[in-house]
Each structure stands twice: as structure tokens, then as C-alpha cells.
What does this fold into?
Amino acid sequence: MTAVNGHEQVRVRLLVAYDGAPFRGFAINDPTPTVAGVLARALEQVCQHPVSLTCAGRTDAGVHAWGQVVTFDAEARRIDPGPLRKSLNKLCGPEVVVRRVDIVSNDFDARYSAAWRSYRYRILNRLVPDPFLRHQTWHIRRPLDLDAMNEAATCILGSHDFSSFCRRQQVLTADGAEVEAPRTRRVLHAEWAREADDLVRFEIAAGSFCYRMVRSLVGIMVQIGLGERPVTDMAEVLEARHRDLRGLLAPPHGLVFWDVGYPER
Amino acid sequence: MTAVNGHEQVRVRLLVAYDGAPFRGFAINDPTPTVAGVLARALEQVCQHPVSLTCAGRTDAGVHAWGQVVTFDAEARRIDPGPLRKSLNKLCGPEVVVRRVDIVSNDFDARYSAAWRSYRYRILNRLVPDPFLRHQTWHIRRPLDLDAMNEAATCILGSHDFSSFCRRQQVLTADGAEVEAPRTRRVLHAEWAREADDLVRFEIAAGSFCYRMVRSLVGIMVQIGLGERPVTDMAEVLEARHRDLRGLLAPPHGLVFWDVGYPER
It folds into this structure.
């Protein structure tokens, strides 16, 4: 425990699901509506003090989450996990749902304690669309060759420089210099499967992801699955480390930030 | 085949799914947005002549459909089922999807040829809501007693006067007199089941339904399932034939017009 202004502080972990459609992504960016904006406003109303949120994965505009993890510090006297979840779910509205509230040790951090993250991408693969799946699946009319897509998916397993699939981002070093963020990532799992007759799902887990990486990977694998590109393109594009070759960007509404793994302590 | 203005006419049957949320029900009621309004505008654009739609079940505002059946007459030269489905799905937008187009015999009528209709109602029955199911399920936090609800459901099997569960409606007789529409209906099937852990589903089939009948029935059965009313209330309210006793009206977004049965001919 630490104390601020004489009040004991606790670190709180939230497990959060959200429909990404109405939001410009997770990270606060006032005045645009963001998930963190909604959560922070609700938390500040309950805690009666400002809160600063850390999340396991900053999802992009329109991307959903089932198992997003968020941590923040609050005055201990304001936090009672059961009632807090109930209040937050009243205040946040139906698009953002707090599934769990836990008090965790002060050195637990939603972002830096995470060992891996996973995403799921769903495609409705049939001629006729479905009005009930339109917000959570990418509708592709022509049949996808899942075997070819899985062959492509195996190319990305392990550690690779994903420059071909991620936008460049500048970061500041400790001494204030602006450098390009590294784009090497370790992919632990990447697999396409048939969830139901016409419903196809991609699951990917990695230590971390760079910006738009999953949607770029899904995009090229869909082109391979449609026969628009040979399966050998996957390894070639990956090795080229150049975004010009990457092809299609899958739409955000098929993507769900699914789960985060924290090592047992 | 018949002919109008020298053009051969065909009767066309559509199988239609829709998300009811953006619509004030099925029946055309300009200028409010309705499912029939969207379909008729698209059909008139393709057929280049006015069309008059008949449906198997006129769903209420906010109620969804998976297997709605619609018939209309059109000039034969305008109708080619495959391309027609494609054009309609482009014109109708993502909320209304034409799943099938068939040319049927001239005496087939979506409404009068139907032997039965079925509805499904889904409830998310757990403490924490789900942002992805919020448009298609009624969220009820306290646990429901499905056995009690099924005991109540058996009371409505067979032919009954459902005046306790349906709003009065005036209809015109052949000689122009205004009389009350009969509210006797034959229920063929009525059953609650667990679709998944926290997901509860009611299925009901009947020759036909009167206005708001399913939502009224679901409402009282939910009150029984929560222990707010004894299971014996179901038979008592049914026999009373008086709406004042009926209780809760379930919200429309949990309800789906599911299927229609036509006798083989």
C-alpha cells in the first residue's frame, strides 16, 4: 500500500468487454468518444478523484474487446469490488461492461505485467449476409480456402520483424531522442478454424502486437484464401519488411481483443 | 399466370431476415422507417412498377425476424430470382437481408397459406451484461426458475382465448360493421430451454398470434421464473380473459419471428 494526501491507495484491476463500434479506440482522446474516456469518467464519479488508466492492449477505432484488462490506483476507502462493478456498469452504459473488479498488488500493471495477448477475428463466409452478425463479422461472399490460410499462418509463428504489416511509429528514448519503435514480435499461436458452417475464425496470440498488425495479417491471408495471391506471398511479404506489399487491411468490426496472459506470481 | 397491361405476372416469395431495431415494425407506415417500406422501395426500383407486399407475420416495432416470408406480384420479365436477391441485398442495406427468392404459384399467399408461425425469445440470465448480446437478448440479473416457467408454458398449449395477453383490435366485417377481432389462438408448442450456460430461450409455435401476445406471455413467465408470481397465475390470468392481470411486457429486442410453416401442396 502507498498513501497519497494521507489516504491509502490500492491498485485495482478491471476485466472489461466492449463493443468497439461507437468508440475511436481505447485510449483517451477528448473530445472523441473512447473506451478509456467512458471508464475514466465513471471511475472518477465513483472515486471522487482523478484516475489514470493503463490497459493491456490499446485497441484501434471500431475494434471490440472481450477480455481487456485495465489497472488504476484509487483511494482504498473508495473501492469495494462488488459494488464498484455494479456502479461502473450502471455508469458506463451498455457498450462497455466491467466483467470483474479485483484489488491487486501495487506492482501489477495491466500492460507491463502481461506475458501475452490474444485476438480473434471472425468472418461470415457465405453468399448471403446475416443482419445479426453484421457488427461482429467481416462478410466475405466467395469461399475461403482455410488450408491455404493456415499454411500462410504458420509462416508468422515465432519471432519476426513485422514491419511489412505495421505502420511506423516514433517513440521517445530516455534521453529524449525520437526513434522508430521496434516492430519485432513473437507470435505464439496463429490458426484459422471453422467456428460453425459459414463462420470462420482466426486466433492469434503474441507477446505483444504493433499497430494494425492483426488486421493487416488477416487481410493478406484472406487474399490468399480467395486465391488472389499465392500462399508463398506470406513469407515473401514478411521478409520484405516493407508495407507497400502488404495488401488488404481487414475491417475493424471483425476483430476482438480476446484475452491477456499474466504469469503466476 | 395472369397478365396486367399486357405483361405476364408472377407471384414471388421472399425469405427475409431483419434486425428490427431501426424499424417501427414490419407494416408500411410512411414516413416512419419500416421493413416493408425498405423492401417495397427496393422492389419498385428493380421491378419499375408498384408492388404490394403480404407477409406471414407483421412484427412489432423493434422485433427481429429470421424467417419472415413475404409475397408480391410482379411482371415476369422483371424477375430472375438469383440476380433479384443480389440487387435487393444491395438496395435494402445491412439491416434487411433477403435470404431466398422463389417464384411460386399464383394462389400461394405468405399470410393465408401459412399453417403455423414460430417465435423465439432470448434472455441473458446472469449478473453481468454482455455488450455483444445487448441488441438480441433481454438481460435479467436474478436467476430464473426454468422448471416453473415450463410448467406455466404448458398451460397455454392448445386452443385458448388469449384476451388477457393481447390488446383489443377492431376489424371490419364484410358488410362494413366494426367488430372486435377474435383472440382465440391454437398454441402448438411452447417451451423454455437453456441455449447455453447463461442464455435462456423460449420457443413458441401457433397457428397465428395476436398483437404483443408473445411478449406478454414471456413477461408473465419471467415474473413466475423470478418467484414474483406463483406458477398458478398463468392459468388464472389466461382464464380471466382480462388484460389488467397480465403483468410485465417483455422488451421487443429479445424477440425473433423465427419460422413459418406452409402445408405441402
